[in-house]
Amino acid sequence: MGVGMEVVSESVASAVRTRAAVRVRGLRMSYGEQEVLRGLDLEIGHGEVVALLGPNGAGKSTTIEILEGFRTSSGGEVEVLGVDPVRGDEDWRADLGIVLQSWRDHAKWRVAELLEHLGEYYAPYSEPGRPRPVAVAELLDQVGLREQARHRVGALSGGQRRRLDVAIGLIGRPRLLFLDEPTAGLDPHARQEFHELLHRLADVDGVTILITTHDLAEAEKLADRILILDGGVIVAAGSAAALSREVAGRTEVRWCADGERSVHAAEDDAAVVAFVRGLLTAPGPAVTELEVRRSSLEDTYLAMVRHREGEPVSEPASEPSTQRLREAPSSRSEGER
Amino acid sequence: MRGLRLGLRRGWITWRAVNTTREGLFQTIVWNLAPLIVLILLRDETIDAVGVSLTASMLPGMMAILVVFGVMGIAYYLANEREDGTLLRAKATPGGMRAYVVGLVVVAALDVAAGLVIVAVPGMFLLSGVAVASVALWLGLLGYLALGLLACLSVGLLIGSVVANPRTIAGVGMLATTGLAVVSGLFFPVQVLWGWVQVLVQLFPMYWLGLGLRSVFLPAEAAALEVGGTWRTLEGLLVLGGWAAVGLLLGPVLLRRMARRESGSKVEARRAEALQRA
Fold first, then answer.
1. Dihedral angle sign, alpha carbons of residues B236, B238, B243, B248
2. Predicted pLDDT at A10
3. A98-144 residue pLDDT tens
4. Is the model's pLDDT at A161 over the cut of 80?
5. A65: which chain B residues are within 8 Å (Cβ-Cβ)?
C-alpha cells in the first residue's frame, strides 16, 4: 500500500497507522425501544478490504453511519482513523471517502465539473507524496467515465452514476473508503463492472475499504475479510475461505431407521465418522437411508436471512445434537438411497 | 475565505447548470417576462393625484416581489437538496457546509439579479417622470435590494430548514408568498385593507422593501399615499435590518441542526418515498 510514498509527516502517519483504521468495542444503538446494535465489536486494519454482510435490517447501515460520523451511537467505543467520529473535525473528514447507495445530488452539473469542484475542498490537505485532490482525468479513466466527462450527472445510467459516486469518494485520496450497499439496484452487468473497479482500487491504492452488502457472493468476491452481522452483533468473521471452513465444520448427518427420520449435527470430521460408524453398527432397527452433508457458507447465511424475515427455520446447531424429525412424506428420498 | 471562494464558485456553477437546461431557462425567462409585459401594457397610465406614471409605482413593487420569490427559491433549493443528498454531500466534504450555504445565497442572488435584468432594466425606460439617470436613485435602489435580499434570505432559510418537504414549499410556500405580496401594498395602498392585515403585513420584510423602493422611485409628494403619509425610512431600515440580523444569527444554527440529522439512510428513505410518489 503506497510503499515509499509515506515518508513525510511520518509522526502523524505512524501515530494513525499503528492503530487499526477502525476499532469498535461494545457498540450499541437503539431507536426508542428497538435495539439495533447490541455490543458490536470490530476491527479493521489499514489497507484491508472488509465486507460487512448481513440481511436487511441487521444493522449494517446504522453501523456504517456511526463510523461515518453521521449518527451518534447509544453506547460503546468507536475509533475511526484514531478519532471518535462524533468529535471528528473537517481534517478528519478529509481522510474519509463516502459512497452511499442513494446519492442523486448535483443532477444538473456536468461530471468533470463536479469532480473538479469537489476536489478543490481537499487541496489544503495535500502533502508531499500524497497530492490531493486526485487528478480528475486520471480518476475518470479509473472509473471508466472518460467518455461521459461532459455529460450531465442526471443523464448517467445507474451503473455510471454509482461509478461517479466512487470517483467522488476517491477524489480526496481518502485513507478509508465507506461503501454502503454500492451495488443495490444495479443490473448484473453494471454490478460486474463495479466489482472490477473495486478490485483495481484495492490493489492499486491500498486504501482501507469497508463495504456493506446483503449479497454473500459479492462479499466473497470483493473482501479480504467478511464480517457477518445479525441481530445487532457480529456472528462470524474471517476470510471467505475460513468462514466456509468454519461453518462447513458443522456437518449434518440425516438418516432414516424404522421409518423414523433423525438428524444429528457434528462439529468436525472425526466426530462425523465416529457417529456414523456407531449409527450403522448399533443394534436396533436397520438404517435405511443415510445422508452426510456439509452445510456451506451460503446455507448458513440463507438460514440467517430467512430467520430475519420471520420464517421458522432449523438453525444449524453449534452443539452436537440429535433430534427427531417429524415424519415427512418420504416417497422422494425413499428411492434415493 | 476559502469557504467563501468555494461557495461563490459553487453558487455560480449551480445557477449556470440550472439555467442551461431548457426548463430552467424557460422558467427564468417566463417568470420574469410576465411583469415586464404588465409594465409595457400600462406604460401610458398615470396616477393623477401625484402626477407620476402608474408604472413608476408598480416597478418598485415588482422588484420587491422578485427579491422575495428569488429568496423563496432558497427554501425550495434547500428542501430539495436535502432530499437528493446534496446537503449530505456537503456534510461529507471537508469545509463543505460553509461553501454550501454561501452557494445557496449566491444562487438566490443570481436568480434575483437575472429577474432584475430582465424586468427592471427595460422597465426603467418605461417610466415617465422619474429621473433614472440620478446617482441617488441607483444608490438607493441597490441599497434596498441588498438589504431586502438579506432580510428575505433569512425568512427563506428559516422556512427551508423547518419545512422538510420541497413540495410543501413549492405549493404552500409559494401560495403564502403570493398572498402576502398581494396584500403588502405593492400594487394598491395597504390602507384599503382591514387593520389587522395591515399590522400583519408590516411584520414581514416584503412590505418594507416595497415601501423603501417606492421612496426611491417616486417623488416626495407620493408619500401622501402611504400609511401615515410619510416614507417611514427609519422604521423600514430597522425592520429590514432586524430580519437580516435574525437570518444571519439563526440561519447557521438551524442549518447546522438540520444537517446534523442527515445520514445515508435518511436520504435513502426519502428516495424510496419519492419513487413511490412517481
1. positive
2. 46
3. 998 878 899 999 999 999 999 999 999 999 888 999 999 999 998 88
4. yes
5. 263-265
What pLDDT, on the 0 to 100 scale, is given for residue A325?
61
DSSP A101-127: S---TTTTSBHHHHHHHHHHTTGGG-B
Residues with Cβ within 8 Å of residue A207, at least 6 apart in sequence: A1, A47, A97, A170, A174, A175, A176, A177, A201
Confidence of residue B255 (pLDDT cuts 50, 70, 90): confident
Instruction: Determine, for residues A61 and B2 on separate chains, whether the beta-carbon distance falls below 8 Å.
Output: no
> Identity (one letter) of the amino acid at B197?
V
Cβ(A109)–Cβ(A49) below 8 Å: no
Tell which residue, A129, A169, A153, A182, has the closest CA to residue A3: A129
Using CB atoms, which residue from B18, B24, B268 is nearest to A101? Answer: B268
The reported pLDDT for the residue numbered A321 is 59
Sequence-ordered list of residues with C-beta below 8 angstroms from that of B62, at least 6 positions apart, any chain: B35, B38, B39, B119, B120, B123, B186
Query: Hey, what domains does chain A have and what are their CATH numbers?
Result: 10-238 (3.40.50.300), 245-334 (no CATH)
CB–CB contact B264 A64 (8 Å): yes
Give the residue from A30, A54, A33 showing the smallest Cα distance to A42: A54
C-alpha cell at A126: 495535500
A316: how many CB neighbours lie within 10 A of its CB? 15
Q: Which of A289, A238, A243, A295 is nearest to A266 (CA)?
A: A295
Compute φ and ψ for A53, nearest 5 degrees. -105, 140
**Among candidates A214, A228, A233, A211, which has minimal Cα distance to A41?**
A233
Listed residue (B24, B14, B13, B160) closest to B82, CA to CA: B160
User: In this predicted structure, what is the pLDDT of residue B203?
Assistant: 86
B207: nearest Cα among B223, B242, B183, B243: B183
Residue B65, H or E segment: helix B54-84
Quote the Cα angle for A251-A252-A254, to 5°: 155
Query: Chain A: which residues have CB within 8 Å of chain B?
Result: 61-62, 64-65, 68, 70-71, 90-91, 93-94, 96, 98, 100-110, 113, 117-118, 120-122, 124-125, 152, 168, 172, 180
Name the residue among A242, A227, A237, A202 with its Cα closest to residue A49.
Answer: A202
**pLDDT digits 0-9 by tens, B201-239:** 888 888 899 999 888 888 777 777 788 778 888 889 999
Q: How far apart are CA A195 and CA A177, in angstroms?
A: 15
Q: A246: buried, middle or exposed (CB in 10 Å: 19+, 13-18, 0-12)?
A: middle
ipTM of the complex: 0.84
Answer yes or no: is pLDDT of A314 > 60: no
